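Please predict the structure of the following assembly.
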Amino acid sequence: KRTNAKNMTRKLNISGIYPPIATPFTEREEVDYQKLDENLQKYSKLPFKGLVVQGSNGEYPYLTVNERLEVVKRVRDILPNSKLLIAGSGCESTKATVQMTGGMAHAGADAVLVVTPCFYRGRMNSKALIHHYTKVADASPVPVVLYSVPANTGLELPVDAIVCLSQHPNIVGLKDSGGDITRIGLIIHKTRLEDFQVLAGSAGFLMAAYAVGAVGGVCALANVLGEEVCELERLCMLGDWEKARELQHRLIEPNTAVTRKYGVAALKQAMEWFGFHGGATRSPLQPLSQTELQQLHVDFSSNGWL
Amino acid sequence: KRTNAKNMTRKLNISGIYPPIATPFTEREEVDYQKLDENLQKYSKLPFKGLVVQGSNGEYPYLTVNERLEVVKRVRDILPNSKLLIAGSGCESTKATVQMTGGMAHAGADAVLVVTPCFYRGRMNSKALIHHYTKVADASPVPVVLYSVPANTGLELPVDAIVCLSQHPNIVGLKDSGGDITRIGLIIHKTRLEDFQVLAGSAGFLMAAYAVGAVGGVCALANVLGEEVCELERLCMLGDWEKARELQHRLIEPNTAVTRKYGVAALKQAMEWFGFHGGATRSPLQPLSQTELQQLHVDFSSNGWL
Amino acid sequence: KRTNAKNMTRKLNISGIYPPIATPFTEREEVDYQKLDENLQKYSKLPFKGLVVQGSNGEYPYLTVNERLEVVKRVRDILPNSKLLIAGSGCESTKATVQMTGGMAHAGADAVLVVTPCFYRGRMNSKALIHHYTKVADASPVPVVLYSVPANTGLELPVDAIVCLSQHPNIVGLKDSGGDITRIGLIIHKTRLEDFQVLAGSAGFLMAAYAVGAVGGVCALANVLGEEVCELERLCMLGDWEKARELQHRLIEPNTAVTRKYGVAALKQAMEWFGFHGGATRSPLQPLSQTELQQLHVDFSSNGWL
Amino acid sequence: KRTNAKNMTRKLNISGIYPPIATPFTEREEVDYQKLDENLQKYSKLPFKGLVVQGSNGEYPYLTVNERLEVVKRVRDILPNSKLLIAGSGCESTKATVQMTGGMAHAGADAVLVVTPCFYRGRMNSKALIHHYTKVADASPVPVVLYSVPANTGLELPVDAIVCLSQHPNIVGLKDSGGDITRIGLIIHKTRLEDFQVLAGSAGFLMAAYAVGAVGGVCALANVLGEEVCELERLCMLGDWEKARELQHRLIEPNTAVTRKYGVAALKQAMEWFGFHGGATRSPLQPLSQTELQQLHVDFSSNGWL
């Protein structure tokens, strides 16, 4: 049993499934708050632990500072209080991240998700990253979740930095989107004496992550197949590995299609197929080509989802 | 339940744990058959399904054609018939691989493990690799196991090639050492209608691989902690995930130390600590530095193994 | 002789040497305009073609929108009108880049340097990048220079996209920091019918770039050894390859030290050694360690610069 | 002027242009000595400094030990004594490389080209590689040329190892196929006190390499456009950079096509178009697809060669 001897109070429990919600845009590339609201109404009825707003799938690097805050406020207004709102507040500089983190808390976030700064990735070693996250966590009014997403940042938050940061009283966990299950197991092992929670950053390795000790997932695919991802969680929690495996297997191709393979435009297209509003992407992200669209459909239909 | 409608007979069952054995050398870098024999005596008493001879840890690229065959003969002489002998027979050219495969079967191998050719990796696409493996499997007197080990080859055997090759009656499975658990799950999913068996290529992700449907592992660490790796297998088969997870966690750092981090020299050193003969490596592989040696010791001792 | 049949007027001539200036910060990490001014006074006396403001070495991802514009205004105030001011105006979204480009022109930039957006690098294919740059160039009041810097962005602007974009009347050239000299030669070859100018993005391959047809360089090292980089330009223009080679050779290690090896903190430190104000970096960039500092010194002194 | 104070005698002069010859195979994938002979007759009339036998384009990893030696003997029989024969003798183990090196010298090689061993690339650090090359050079009856070809080996011979090895009396130079011109300049700079000669490993950056101080090239494209590559050498030696640049530019796309883009099969196809015998590749290398073949043709024709 994990305990955190250093802190009197338990850290915020973030276990469970979260869709990292997409930001629907109008054809003129403005945030479409109407469509966002309707998606939120639907997500509120699913057994999610909460929502991640402005993970990589939220096109947050394409939003202005004001838009980032406004979208979070809107989500908080609609999301039931029983659901957690984790807001992405990462920026390149420590200063901007501290400020955005404060803004997100003020806008109603229960916790913030802080991506690794990455532009000067050659110098983003453990020392720099520990310094960055410590400053942010010290200043943050709400708990901080670390976020490692090498496909976008070209950078993995090093294990030794994570182990060090896990001891910070205001750092509650990690979203790891890299998918290296050996690394995920090692992180869980080496932070076992802290109250530190690891979330799988993708539905593609969700079951394996549960097997090695993760407590939840932030899964793009949950925007589309939310019930099913939550069902996979339930099977893993129950220990019904036969059924879990079968379900996991059918989710891999659709998940890859809406993430690594075709990205946000595919996620938004698939949302339309399943009754949600995806809307347009913001430029320079482009719509899928006809060939990609057909292949995306096959990735869902060949696994029995369409 | 998996069935193979195309073939009347079941393929060879390769499920279980295998150490990919090291090749001990004398100080003059000759194969030390005496030490090899003594290791084999000890391995024969462990609950392995069999041995892999001339996987990457066997320094096979450093052996001559004759040495490769001679080592396999020696292993067959000593290994009980109840244990499977899987011999690495991969070479760069198809022609040489076919010939080596025949030689290995003649020397007593029950199956062969065929690594992806990789020197012209820019041209080793699915078409070339399907052609290569089909020729080898057509000609091989014994079943063929595919082998993908990107850390050494800089090349992953593509999923579509694996799916195609899984239908060959003489190809029984895959050793995947890449450790991408999403990929492993997908391979198992897409070959579910064939009698195709996937082995984890490392102890670092063995539990996760079982979770998504692998049937065994070829684990360098089993040369050192053979009982423990087999115990992990047993716990996974039983579905005792709590205990499995705890054991898996303690194996990650030692495993990484003897593979990716410090390589064969570390594996051989650790074997010495645990009562086996590692012996020298063949040049250009070098012994560990003092610093590396100390860190290697920590990677075992901090996890309670030394 | 290159001609651009499509356009009546010649494009802006950007040939020559530019330092991509550093942004000095105070110890409290505020922009130190006083130090910036003093640097600019010194740079004004060197035979640069102009200055690049907010290239990668300017820590632009760490500046707010207002700071980015304010720094450019300040530079324009001090820089003689005879010198070109090229301002970095790249942002992740097309919309923000268009806006920042307008702002930079208004602040006094003669041209803008637009880095490839990169967060969704898996989808930043030629189609997306051509779309992005076309929108930006269409809207820009001043000429646009493309900017490919894979060490920071993890992305190379594809050759086919460059060839296509070279035909745009408001796109005048490319800063290529990747250093692949075969690629640079090919780009120059394939844009030979356009009035398209290629600048080397680093002093490490400046001579080689001139050899294959580049017309200048944006070189971090010119912040430190400005005279010497301009002398290398002069020798290359004269065709005095023996002397050019000798000078080029002595610049490689110092250049690598202040770029790829130790980054902006090293550049700023070296500036202090050579009579300029580097100042602090903004966090998360950290100061050099003692060991790094010593090695940085060696990289200059062993080549006769200190 | 470079001098080597440590050694009384000058090292073998290897400056000049070499085609790394292809090995023609029959349709049954046997070495086609007849076709080889005819190619050699033609190459003997071109202004090459000599030939490289069993560089990467010679498919040497697909040849048996006997074939490797036999091919070299055959070349020596036909090649005029005035031309240098540099034979590839690299193997994975130091032991095998020493033996092959002796064999190559016996077969008539004037020098040997020794590729970096690479299977255990994670452990092929400077220490291991210095050990390897020192042993080989100590034992070799003929001068040794280092060979770094990361596209095939996934490994770059580190600069510090090269600088150290340049002092060995039996190591005369380096073939660098990586194409990083900054690195090539640095190597030449740091070995300037030794009698150490650097050859460009590809025609794509031949002119740039001459600019920074290389003394020749081993260029796959010279199998096809031998006259033209030698003409580029001549222009570089003369210092006629305008003409050199124009010729260099026209060689980039054909060169990339027969190397990185389509590999040995393309080289062999292009040889057929230009009056040489390419013959088949050995499996697993496959012939080009129709689409590739057409694109290959365009890469030559659009530059005026077909």
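The mean pLDDT of chain D is 96. Chains D and A do not touch (no CB pair under 8 Å).
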